[in-house]
Amino acid sequence: MISVQRLIQAISLFCFLALLWLAAFPLPDWAPVDAFLRMDPLVLLGTVFAARSWIPGLGLSFLILAATAILGRFFCGYLCPMGTTLDLTDRLFRPKHNDPANPARLKQSNGLRRIKYLLLFFLAGIAALGVSAVFIASPLSLITRFYAMLVHPLAALTSDGLLHLIRPLALHQDWTWAAYAEIPRPRFSTQWFVLTFFLGIFALAWFSPRFWCRYLCPSGAILALVGRKPLMRRMVADACTRCDACRQSCPMDAITVDPRETRHDECIACLNCVRACPVDAISFGSAIKPVRTPDPFLPRRREALLAGLAGVGAATLTLTGLAEVRGELLPGNPMPPDLLRPPGALPERTFLARCIRCGLCMRACPTNTLQPLWLQAGVVSLFSPGLMPRRGPCLPECTTCGDVCPTGAIPSLPLFEKQWAKIGTAHILRHKCLAWEWEKECLVCDEVCPYDAIELRKIPEVGVSVPFVRGNQCSGCGFCEYHCPVRAASAIVVEPMEALRLDSGSYKQTGQAIGLRLNIDPKDKAFTAVNDNDSMNDDMTRPAPGFTF
Predict the structure, then answer these.
(1) How many angstroms separate the CA atoms of 136 and 216, rounded?
(2) Which residue among 39, 367, 389, 520 is least enclosed by CB atoms within 10 Å?
(3) The predicted structure's pLDDT at residue 541
(4) Residue 546 burial (10 A CB sphere; 0-12, 13-18, 19+)
């Protein structure tokens, strides 16, 4: 019979995956798709300290901390999708005859428990200099990235393949819905890294169950500190026979050699020990009288200090790297020409301090243009979202990336404001342009631009009309670059030049004040030239609208 814990875990994981599936354009107003991310106390502390500002949406973490003081680390045992995923994968990687409570491994296990606290101090040291490294260890950020950028694309590819298999039968049986249905197939960079990282996390089950939760998780360290002496805790009656069944069943090794003692900072209240006890000597309830609790495995003061200093050193090294993008537009401050941030993204330093690289905005993007970055903008930008217009344009009618962001790194903007959030400016590579270089008639960039930022002119040196970009009307949406019929690198590219990124204030008012004219004619249907299925289609060899080979 399924236990209450397994039932709650299944419901929690289902809700997590359902919300992840709902994180798409158009976004339903009723769905809090970022709810699980806002529960992570590491996201709260790391982001608030690094950004030097309070983020209202993360207040949900306080409810988790308050409940932890009462119930212990229940979040780890019941609600955390990372923990549930590890419980599932442990069955694949865990040796059948590996005793988690083997006394010969007790000393080694106790020493490893300090790692999660040291990692917490390391991340705190990094945040002290305004750099966020939450994304390397936040369980909710990591597991969201795993499901959004690895599992979801694989599931979409598999489902679309099955549709293709049944299509002949569907046509024969006149099943219209199956005959013409298509499932968008997103593609992401960094997939091999994500896969390798999680295979390593899963494989650690060979050493002990829930290895990540026991020894590495800094969010678990925060919850362990808060839930060290919970009001509801494990209690053992005098009927205990010390058979060790409870120790052998504990996935966190929270029960000491003396089965009457419990490390409550490690206990996730899974109730495995209650079910394993042959004499029903174990129960969970309110501890009225003192219960023996061993000291937690906290690092020594010197170890904690060194971990914090190591974080400060890592942040300093990051900030002094040449690839680190500075916000000031001054000589000597290079910026990668392809560093395009989502529309409305905060100024770079603040954006990176808030962004937890969860991948939710990339999952939600309807055209798959948002991609995780590698090292082109420095280590500090690793896995942060950037636009790749050659993959897909940014739809003027879409505000989904800001709506799903849990930390406000991409603010949620009204549509009329988002359309004034200039991403960059397109410019034409004349040596590749069919009109400029080869004197062939081509109207594609002019036809697809929703802002009418392309102007065709006749000049004496060229026998056909050639395109020019009106910089004050270009939003950097990337429609021109996406549709350009020139293969490999496009003949028109978007660069972050003149991008408008504000900490506060109105994009529309600021844009009008500096001379922008980012208006879309309501009668202009050009921006509907790309639909979701087209943008996900792997066949990039077809000609763009208005152009024939």
Answers:
(1) 11
(2) 520
(3) 38
(4) middle
Instruction: Give the largest Cα separation in the chain, rounded.
Output: 100
Give the span between the Cα atoms of 66 and 76, in whole angstroms: 14
Q: Residue type for 16, please?
A: F
Q: Residues, the chain, total? A: 549
Contact 218, 120 (CB under 8 A): yes
**Is the torsion defined by CA of 209, 214, 216, 220 positive or negative?**
positive
- Which neighbouring-strand residues pair with 468? 455
Residue owning tokens 């500096």: 514
Residue 412 and residue 360 in contact, taking contact as beta carbons nearer than 8 Å: no
493 neighbors 481 (Cβ within 8 angstroms): yes
pLDDT at position 146 = 97
Instruction: Name the residue type at position 266.
Output: E
Write out the two tokens for 131.
């750099």
> Residue 284 corresponds to which tokens in the numbers above?
């969970």
* Number of Cα atoms under 13 Å in the Cβ half of residue 290: 3
H/E stretch holding 494 = strand 492-495
Q: Which residue has the tokens 């709506």?
A: 403
Q: For the residues of 208-222, what is the DSSP string, one character each?
A: STTHIIIII-HHHHH
| Secondary structure class of 282 (helix, strand, coil) | strand
What are the backbone dihedrals phi and psi of residue 229, each rounded to the nearest 5 degrees, phi first? -130, 75
In which residue are the tokens 């879309």 written? 520
422 Cβ neighbours under 8 A, 6+ residues apart: 343, 474, 475, 476, 498, 499, 500, 511, 516, 518
Cα(388)–Cα(339) distance, integer angstroms: 9
CA dist., res. 61 & res. 80, Å (int): 13
- pLDDT score at 534: 40
Other beta carbons less than 10 A from residue 279's beta carbon: 11
Q: Supply angle C-alpha 352, 358, 361, rounded to 5.
A: 85
pLDDT confidence of residue 360: 97
For the entire predicted model, the pTM comes to: 0.90
Domain residue ranges of the chain, discontinuous segments joined by +: 4-149+191-229, 331-549
3-state SS, 363-418, equals HHCCCCCEEECCCCCCHHHCCCEEECCCCCCCCCCCCHHHHHCCCCCCCCCCHHHH
End-to-end, the C-alpha distance of the chain in Å comes to 64
Q: Running along the chain, 549 residues long, what does each successive block of 10 average in pLDDT? A: 90 97 91 95 95 91 96 96 96 70 57 93 95 95 97 94 89 83 90 95 93 96 94 92 92 90 93 95 80 76 96 91 66 79 94 96 97 88 95 96 96 95 96 94 95 94 94 96 93 95 94 92 46 39 38
CB 494 within 8 A of CB 451: no
User: What burial class does residue 473 get, using C-beta atoms within 10 Å of its C-beta: 0-12 exposed, 13-18 middle, 19+ buried?
Assistant: middle
